[in-house]
Fold each of these.
Amino acid sequence: MKKTKLVFSLVREQSNFMTTVMSILTFLSVLAFGIALAIGGGVINWNNQWEKYATVQVTKVDNTKIVKKVFETNIDKIESVKEISKSEMGERMKPWVSNGAKLNDYLPQMFEIKLKDASDMKMIQEKISPHAKFLTHTSAVKNSMTAGLKLVGITIFILIIMLISIGVCVSHISRNIAMLHRHELEILNQVGASDKFIARQMQLIVGKISAIAALIGFTIACPIISLILMTAHSARVGLMATISLNGTDWIMLCVLPILIVIFSVYITKQTTLKILSNK
Amino acid sequence: MESETVISFANVSTNYDNGHDILTDVSFNIGPGSFYFLTGPSGAGKTTLLRLIYQLHKPTRGHIKLFGQDCDNMSRNDISLLRHKMAIVFQEYSLISHMTVFDNVALPLRVRGFAPDKIKKIVTKTLEWVGLGKFANVYPLELSGGQQQRVSVARAIIIQPAVLLADEPTGNLDDENASRLMELFIQMNKTFGTTIILATHNKKMLETYKFPIITIDNRHVSFAKANTSESPRKWKGPQPQSQNYFSEISKQFENIGNS
């Protein structure tokens, strides 16, 4: 027995148009969410990369011994201490100070330390700070991290706009279906259909459109996100090179289209019940 | 439900969107098991009266009671539950063109949450006794007018309603098929106590069947009693054994609209 369970029928053109619009919105949502997660991950990686490092600048020669003593007494907490030689410093500063011989007289004595645990940073800083300038690498790269977090904020804002657009679009689709199918609505009223039954019929249509759109949008978005990550990694250095998506991030990306479908179905129900109550 | 009046109108008025009155100050009571003809000139408000009873149209003034329940402040959900005891048949069939005959007839059962296997059983039986068994997978537009009307009637009576409203159901049928359909309605009324209000223009029908007549003229409603002494019957409710329900009235449907 051939059965048609949906009372509302969509012609192919309507259905294709709605699926296309929803696919684009789902694609942009997944893309925005993917970029937000990748930059967020990058910022965390970038921060983790530098949080164990600090540079100590000893400007008074007399304090060198005291600083070295602090290193020795805390050797169990320090993974490595690297003294940066004056020739190395000169080499690094060459672009700004040319080759001046007098430079050596003004250069401080510098150490780059790496701690075993980032949580010891504050304690070491407190012990060294009275005798030398103590600069954590995290604070040195703070600007790039702030910029990264701002980018995460912007992409999340774009994601929210996309979700609002999906809500408006789905609401419009429901209204459109109701408007195009007044005859069917009248018949449903005649046979005693409750508003919930009618809403369920709408939910089935929109759910089907959203599910196909979610699949299309996600399928297109994934390779593009991978391409963005590969391009960023080709920078090799800096925050951009650290952006990435781990397994959990990919699972979250997979969940987003499912949530969009659930959200669409929910909006459809609310819109339909509202339309019917205003009839 | 067991109230003495099934349909009660008290000073009901209604108007068009432009403010012109269709019906003014209409009051009447209809008891269970009654059979009324509803007549009047075109545009007098017959369809509006049926739509008011079926709660598809709201009165601008007055009160309507159905099965003893006041409909004034009924929620949409309450109205849909009320319609589970009622059915309406229109002249223009009101079928869904993209759904098969089977699905059209099955619709009232689906909205009531019947199980698919039960729906299949009842619909198949219903279609058989309206003589459309082999048209189950056909779309309404592939059927003749008479056949479409039979689908519409099958959809209305499949729920074994307590009240059946029919808006010129024989308007598109020839005399023979019209009288067969009338016999079916009479059988439903006699056997199951279904209250029936049937709107018609057909004077021959009004003269042939001696049922009381509700006449709408100049926005007012008047009643003319029938010449019969039959006492009103009480609705017996949906029959648990659908087989009996269908077999009792099945004979009336043979060949309607096949011509």
Amino acid sequence: MLFNSIDYFFFFIACYITYWISPSRFRKYILIVFSLLFYGYWSGSFLIHFVLFIIITHLCVIGILKTKRKIFLILGVSINLLNLCFFKYVLTYLKYLMSEGELTIPFFQSLSEFVLPLAISFYTFQMIAYLVDAWRGKFTESPFVNFLLFILFFPQLIAGPIMRHDDFYDQIDHAKLTLDFVQRGIFHILSGLIKKVLIADQIAKLINPVYANPGEYDGISIFLSTFAFSFQVYGDFSGYTDLARGSAFLLGYEIPENFRSPFLSVSFAELWSRWHYTLSTWIRDYLYIPLGGNRVTELRYNINTIIVMSLSGLWHGNTYTFFLWGFFHGIFLSIERFAFGKPNRSSMTPLKKVFAVIWIFTIFSILATFFRIDTLEKISTFWSSVINLKGKIIYKPDFWGLMIGSYILQFVEFKNYFKEKLEPYILWLIPVCTILVYFALVKIEAATETFIYFQF
Amino acid sequence: MTHNKIYFYPFILIFFVFTIDKIACIPDFREAARRPYKSGQNILIGFPKVWEENKRLQSEKINVTVVTGSSRSDIFHEWENIPVNKNTYNQPIYFETRLALKASEYFLYYLLLKSMVNGGFKPNLLFIEFSEEMLNENNVYSYKTKWKELMLTERELIDIYPAFNLKYKLDILTRLLFVAYNYHIRPIQGISNLIKGERAADDTYFIALSSYLNKKRPFNPNNTGIEIDNFTPKEYEERIVNYSRSQEQLLLNNFLISETEVGFLKKIIDLAEENNIPTVIWEPQVHPYYKERRKSITGGNLFDTISERLIEKDSKNIRRISLNRGNTNCRLYTDSSHVSPLCVPEIVDKLLQTAKEIPNFQ
């Protein structure tokens, strides 16, 4: 069920009414039921699989808390990683071999019908973090119902943000609807719809044909489509996060931010603190620091950075191009640290900042080709088209409109300028914005595009 | 704002949008501000004219048979006058073949037949094609593609609501509640058109489609298919093997019986029964190679199981026949999925013989 779909609109209204008219002691159970329905709407059988892994993980957590034995941590983490690796990597590889006719396994004849369980990468990371936090003694008891809600909570279930228990547990049983939450909720939903439906989906319509047949387009269109793709992914994922946060606000919960104007970053280090922030901090806390963090030699630090970023790439997808995407980001992070240390925004002149922003965004966009295209051969075909002097073009007024709109969103997010200036007018600003967004949405005819990050 | 009122805030906002949206209900504004009609819509808009023509034919004592179906029925359209065996049927008869539309299915037929009934036209006979591909939920030409293109009126939406699955029911409900969504209203365009005294500029398909619909398209005598045993290996590979593969990919992919399409077939049957329209539901013949491949996907007996389920045993208006059981003399195929237009007279003869079993058919 997509957040920008009519199904979700009705689903959320049903949940909102049931949730708030019920006595507060029942509310978390209602959220669990609706979250189960939300996941089950996609696949009943994978819902059983999902719940089974939640139960197994929780048993391991109980084992850790009661006995303090490391075996439960190893068991819990291993089971979750095996689950992720089986569906995301092994099954995909077997399917590939079978499709190429190189492998025949009678039991797996219907393998092509298997799909990647929705949200597996997100919930696996969330459960691993919970196991590690239990081992680190960050909490001493783990009520199953709370854990169930923490993992299943439908606004963040499918594509994050990746939550930690301390982001969420304190809010269970204390969720309240305040005017601030309602207003922030509605603004986040409006912002999410703008980013997803009016920006990302519209960019997709323009650039999908370019990626499908790069040879038909001129070089400038090829180059511009890589920038546009960066905005598409941003609008798509950041839009999803806004819709998730907006829904959570309306249910009385605040879940973490995930994006903070990444395309205004002046360094790669800053970019990763602004892009998919909850994944970056997860990797920092549960992978990077255990590998030694900053307390190692420069060489080891750089190697760790490259390893961690490459794994982050693999987390996103199961093709080697995703690995390369992460690997190259690791390389750029290492080079940046070697060349500039830790670039500091406040010490930069405005001109230097502008150049830095252009540099970071350009490299990010060029590397995004590895994110978008699944083989090196196709990437090579794509980039070889950049020398085309003639061909179809995408840089028409609607393209530039979307690009400018995307950057305006970055500034709005970055400055947080509007929050204070517009606060006194919020009561009439909400209905006006709602009407504007409503008429912008109803104009669109095509079916909604699915969210890119759902595949992870 | 008191604490209790906060809970109603989102609903107040929805109600506000609902109220503003109602401006779009004003017909003059809606016609000025809506999205232009597209080709699929124009089929619906164009048909009242067709029904008027058919009423005129009936007034001249010519019996009108309406033929609905996909490309397998489109061959009816390729005859200026289909020769009818006088021993089978000896009255003047005209075949209205403009409802035989390539890549069509029961949702579209229902809308067309409903417009026929609403237009006050009752055919003397109705042929409805039954092809298993039409029942595939994942057929690329299923009701879903028509749904994306059509902009139905509120009355039509209410009428078709029960036949749809939950997902589409919710969509219909939203379209009924928020009219601007149904008509893809563009307020600035609407205001501008109102000032200029204009209405939404529709695509020009209608003129082309109208002339297309009004003409029979006689087949090319040099291209009437190949006899079943006379395909060269190359022709067999192209027209039978490869064509079957493409049909499987487009029409039979992930075959799953669509309860929505079945629901619309049921609605067509109900429409025929309520209006006492003599109807023959028939299954077209396909090449044996494709028949076997299709059978391995669908089971091959949907014509019996589904039509038996939907048609009352003692129906006074409906009979059915499969022509895909080796019960014709037709041996000419243009490809694995279509027989030659030269087979049409025999098909018509078989269908008219079946029609004669209908109590309400004169």
